[in-house]
Amino acid sequence: MRRLLIAGALGILVMALPACGSGTDPSDVEAQRFQDKWEIDQIEKNFHEATSLKDIDLMMSLYAPNATFTVGGGETAVGVDEIRDFWMTKSPAFSPTNNWISDHPAYKLEVTVNGDRGTLHFECHFVDAETAQVVAVTAGDADVARVDGTWLITNFVGGTSEL
Hints:
It contains four helices and seven strands, in the order αααββαβββββ. By secondary structure, the protein is α+β, with helices and mostly antiparallel strands. Strands 1, 2, 3, 4, 5, 6 and 7 form a seven-stranded mixed sheet that branches.
């Protein structure tokens, strides 16, 4: 009887050990994943706010220091100085002659996360504030990473899209 009791106790202990192995509650992992996706989504929201308000400081706060930014015919800006220059000198959204509002179809947003890396896909529908007409439609695909606790764009590729 004593052997049976000891064997039973050992069996329970052996079965319980794998549950203690990771020390991570699955609900904590899911909560962190949800939080990460929300923070990555904020990049997209801030991107559209920055283009609507022509807020270059907000726009630049979205990029990692060594980020790359590719648009148009494959022109690539490397680093925040070159990316800032693109927005200020080549982007119609930041042109002082345009009064555009950057709208985004939320249902086309795609966010992935894998640890400290992720991806972000979104569209921009630029609407002229005076005529209420859509004047440009673009899309963005970004690689993002958690850098010093903040999600930032590490690589951005802009492209075209259809309504």
